[in-house]
């Protein structure tokens, strides 16, 4: 898992989802785990921006959904994203700058 | 927004696209397969020759000795377009997933004796590399083939082979309890163990074969036509019963896949054979060459896996393939023209 | 060699290691045939890869997961396409002028999805790195998905509107469609590293939002829910594609310092070619959407100047700089769409979509969005043409435009620093003179003249008699373009009259954008 290093910029990364019941929980989880993130709503789409880094945690989403959520299910509702990606079984991370 | 539609005035202008209508002979409603497939590949007015192979155009019928008046004569009997293909495979992977879960829970493979494990690793795991080779060959066809009809299907085959390779890999993980050592041993067999070398050599020879239709026939008709029955039909009988049953259950995907894929492969070759005596001649010649080659390549494995039964079982396998070949119009060796 | 794995307990593989076994572990270095013979295409470009194993797989999707998720997405998508057809959803769009954006999309963009499918299949066989091949193959099948879902979605519109009916035939022949066709064939005829830099990086990472946002948001704003749905569905694949683009560029840059200059050259070339291709999108955004999302200028500022800026800032640590001529694109942003739409207005009789003079409310929007240029340079033209049209003398240019040898867009752009002068450049090569719309295009040609002298330029071909013969009628026949249906002025077209008859609505009643 990567932790922010001094070289990481604060340039925002973003992730965008289709608006539906599942993503409501994903967005809520992201808000919890990324206090600096901002959420923007568009027709049929929701976009979350965060300075430098954004992390989606499997456990947080599962807790909110009330079932075991597979991180790879993110593909079902993903529209777009920016930044470099680091994916493990438990976390999906977007970032700019050097990997830790 | 409420729309006041004057329904009595609405008349459709046409049923389908013009290029589809031309192929159907009239402007009739078309199937999703037809609209997704017909004429999707450019066939004229190319701007630049590939700098990596300038003797050919970007898409070029000259890349194969097979000649067709219409490259869209090739119809996939499964009528796979992307949607149907993925939805079908999704169902199949769901079933396979349950089979693997069951096998893992029961530990049938994990609890085998060392000797039985060794044998399974030797007999089966190198097939993940065979599948990877088949992936490369079908990708080659997709890249250099002509017309969207054939290349669409070879694209699906390409990804199928990756899936198959991954399923074989998971068999290994069942054997070694998710550590991965069995896969390493399997790879060593593929690279070094004498019994596997001739098949690997054949595969590598196919990697440098330039005519994509020849590659299609060699890989999808001949090699698969011998390898699949060998490993996914007959091998079970030579494994210890518990392992054999679990092996059969966990390779159900492969068995079903082979039956389904055969239909398409046979139909494709038959269409090419029926086109002209020249095509028939060329395809029959290729069949003869690769049949001889693959038969030779598989003998060491047959002996290692089937011992005293090797000759008779291979005879069965070969006979079945010859029957298929005859049915689609290939001239079989020794048979009257 | 017969070592049996010891039952050392459950040292289970992590996601990364397991995925490695499911992918890169499948390949091997061939010994019965030389690796260079098995992989003949991945070294001639001069890109040096020392260790393919350093390739990072951003998305670790095994095939069973791919089938599962993609199958799920297809199920949902086709349910919506079916519902759209059953409910005659096409009547919910703002007005029939919107359909012309779909005509441009189906004839210009959808064939590129197919070309991408074949291009990635080629790359998927060409790289000697296993992980890179797998990523390319997944993209190859994804692009086939996009081509097919677009055809399936727009198929329903084809039943009711003109200009869509022979999109494949037209893509290979019609004059403005050689812009996208040549763009993609340029990438396909290049080597695998250039192809993947051009498409995965330059197009699908740097410029993608300038294609996606206009068309998909345009669809959403104008009531075209079917297109919105396939757009969003395709975009989820695009996220995987974008990451491939960024990954491949970083990989090349990290593998060998010598790769940097080659990569920079490609970044420069493909930024410019992609930018010129997007000229068609600029006109779509500012002129063809009854309900407009944002101006081309705003889109350029948001998605290139801001977003692209962040990306190149990230890449600067490798010594990569912003693409050459990006400042020209910025200078052109307040002019591009107007110059292009004006051109299509001129040649409407030869195009497979309709054109029209914007309504007064729309001209007002353009004045507001382009305060420095629209009223000064472009409004007078539209007012002039409008006046002619009211007199029954709708303007139609009887000549044929000069095309840029490289991008194949008509040479109608203006000098970066002077909007009153057409920008023309030329080069003489082996005694023949070649013409360009810009320094950007000329530079690309000068770098690889042997390639671009081959261009099948539609206007040259017409003059040479290769497009059906002499005269407009013969050319339109060659295009399979039905005169009086597919082409010409929107007002009085079959599309417009049918729309009014079917929905009782006329766009002249529609509220301002």
From TrEMBL, chain A:
InterPro entries: MOase_MmoB_DmpM (IPR003454), mOase_MmoB_DmpM_sf (IPR036889). It holds the Pfam family MmoB_DmpM. One of its GO terms (molecular function) is monooxygenase activity. Belongs to the TmoD/XamoD family. This is Phenol hydroxylase activator.
């Amino acid at each position: 898992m990567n932790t922010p290093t001094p070289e990481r910029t604060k340039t925002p990364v973003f992730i965008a989802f289709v608006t539906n019941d599942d993503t409501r929980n994903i967005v809520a989880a992201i808000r919890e785990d990324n206090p600096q993130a901002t959420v923007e709503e568009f027709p049929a789409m929701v976009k979350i921006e965060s300075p430098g880094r954004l992390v989606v945690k499997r456990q947080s989403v599962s807790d909110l959904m009330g079932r075991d959520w597979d991180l790879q299910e993110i593909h079902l509702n993903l529209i777009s994203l920016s930044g470099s990606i680091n994916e493990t079984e438990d976390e999906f991370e977007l970032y700019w700058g050097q990997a830790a | 927004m409420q729309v006041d539609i004057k329904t009595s005035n609405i008349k459709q202008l046409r049923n389908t696209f013009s290029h589809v209508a031309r192929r159907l002979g009239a402007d009739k409603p078309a199937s999703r397969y037809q609209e997704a497939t017909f004429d999707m590949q450019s066939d004229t007015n190319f701007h630049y020759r590939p700098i990596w192979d300038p003797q050919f155009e970007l898409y070029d019928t000259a890349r194969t000795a097979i000649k067709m008046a219409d490259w869209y004569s090739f119809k996939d009997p499964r009528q796979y377009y992307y949607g149907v293909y993925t939805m079908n495979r999704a169902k199949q992977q769901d079933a396979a997933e349950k089979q693997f879960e069951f096998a893992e829970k029961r530990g049938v493979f994990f609890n085998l004796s060392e000797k039985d494990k060794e044998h399974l690793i030797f007999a089966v795991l190198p097939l993940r590399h065979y599948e990877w080779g088949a992936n490369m060959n079908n990708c080659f066809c997709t890249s250099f083939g002509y017309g969207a009809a054939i290349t669409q299907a070879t694209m699906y085959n390409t990804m199928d082979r990756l899936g198959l390779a991954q399923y074989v890999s998971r068999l290994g993980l069942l054997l070694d309890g998710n550590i991965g050592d069995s896969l390493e041993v399997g790879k060593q067999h593929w690279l070094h163990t004498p019994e596997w070398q001739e098949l690997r050599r054949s595969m590598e020879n196919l990697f440098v074969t330039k005519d994509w239709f020849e590659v299609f026939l060699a890989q999808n008709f001949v090699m698969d036509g011998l390898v699949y029955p060998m490993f996914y039909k007959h091998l079970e009988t030579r494994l210890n019963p518990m392992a054999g049953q679990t092996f059969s259950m966990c390779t159900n995907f492969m068995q079903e896949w082979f039956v389904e894929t055969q239909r398409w492969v046979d139909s494709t070759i038959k269409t090419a054979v029926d086109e002209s005596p020249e095509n028939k001649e060329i395809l029959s010649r290729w069949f003869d060459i690769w049949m001889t080659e693959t038969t030779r390549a598989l003998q060491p494995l047959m002996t290692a896996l089937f011992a005293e039964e090797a000759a008779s079982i291979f005879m069965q396998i070969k006979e079945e393939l010859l029957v298929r070949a005859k049915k689609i119009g290939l001239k079989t060796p020794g048979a009257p023209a | 060699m017969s070592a049996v794995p010891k039952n050392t307990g459950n040292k289970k593989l992590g996601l990364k290691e397991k995925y490695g076994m499911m992918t890169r572990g499948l390949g091997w270095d061939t010994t019965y045939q030389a690796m260079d013979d098995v992989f003949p295409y991945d070294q001639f470009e001069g890109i040096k890869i020392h260790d393919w194993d350093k390739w990072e797989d951003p998305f670790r999707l095994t095939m069973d997961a791919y089938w599962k998720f993609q199958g799920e997405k297809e199920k949902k998508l086709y349910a919506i396409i079916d519902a759209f057809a059953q409910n005659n959803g096409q009547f919910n769009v703002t007005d029939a002028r919107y359909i012309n954006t779909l005509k441009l999309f189906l004839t210009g963009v959808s064939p590129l999805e197919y070309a991408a499918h074949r291009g990635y299949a080629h790359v998927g066989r060409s790289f000697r790195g296993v992980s890179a091949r797998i990523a390319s193959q997944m993209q190859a099948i994804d692009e086939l998905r996009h081509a097919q879902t677009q055809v399936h979605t727009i198929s329903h519109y084809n039943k009711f509107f003109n200009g869509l009916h022979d999109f494949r035939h037209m893509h290979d022949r019609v004059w403005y469609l050689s812009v996208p066709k040549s763009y993609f064939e340029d990438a396909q005829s290049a080597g695998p590293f250039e192809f993947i830099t051009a498409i995965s990086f330059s197009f699908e990472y740097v410029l993608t939002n300038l294609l996606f946002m206009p068309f998909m948001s345009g669809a959403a704003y104008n009531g075209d829910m079917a297109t919105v749905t396939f757009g969003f569905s395709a975009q989820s694949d695009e996220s995987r594609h974008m990451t491939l683009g960024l990954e491949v560029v970083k990989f090349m840059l990290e593998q060998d310092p010598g790769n940097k200059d080659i990569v920079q050259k490609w970044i420069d070339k493909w930024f410019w070619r992609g930018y010129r291709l997007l000229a068609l999108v600029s006109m779509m955004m500012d002129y063809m959407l009854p309900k407009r999302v944002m101006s081309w200028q705003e889109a350029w500022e948001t998605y290139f100047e801001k977003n692209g800026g962040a990306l190149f800032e990230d890449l600067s640590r490798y010594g990569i700089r912003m693409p050459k001529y990006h400042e020209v694109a910025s200078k052109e942003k307040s002019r591009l769409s107007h110059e292009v739409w004006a051109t299509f207005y001129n040649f409407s009789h030869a195009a497979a979509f309709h054109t029209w003079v914007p309504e007064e409310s729309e001209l007002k929007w353009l004045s507001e969005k382009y305060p420095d240029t629209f009223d000064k340079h472009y409004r007078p033209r539209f007012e002039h043409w409008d006046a002619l049209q009211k007199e029954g003398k709708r303007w139609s240019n009887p000549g044929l435009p000069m095309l840029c040898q490289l991008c194949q867009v008509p040479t109608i752009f203006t000098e970066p620093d002077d909007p009153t002068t057409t920008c023309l450049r030329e080069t003489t090569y082996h005694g023949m003179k070649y013409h360009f719309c810009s320094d950007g295009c000329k530079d690309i040609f000068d770098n690889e003249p042997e390639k671009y002298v081959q261009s099948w330029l539609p206007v040259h071909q017409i003059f040479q008699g290769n497009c059906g013969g002499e005269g407009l009628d013969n050319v339109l026949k060659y295009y399979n373009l039905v005169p009086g249906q597919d082409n010409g002025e929107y007002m009085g077209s079959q599309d417009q009259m049918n729309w009014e008859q079917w929905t009782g609505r006329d766009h002249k009643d529609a509220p301002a954008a």
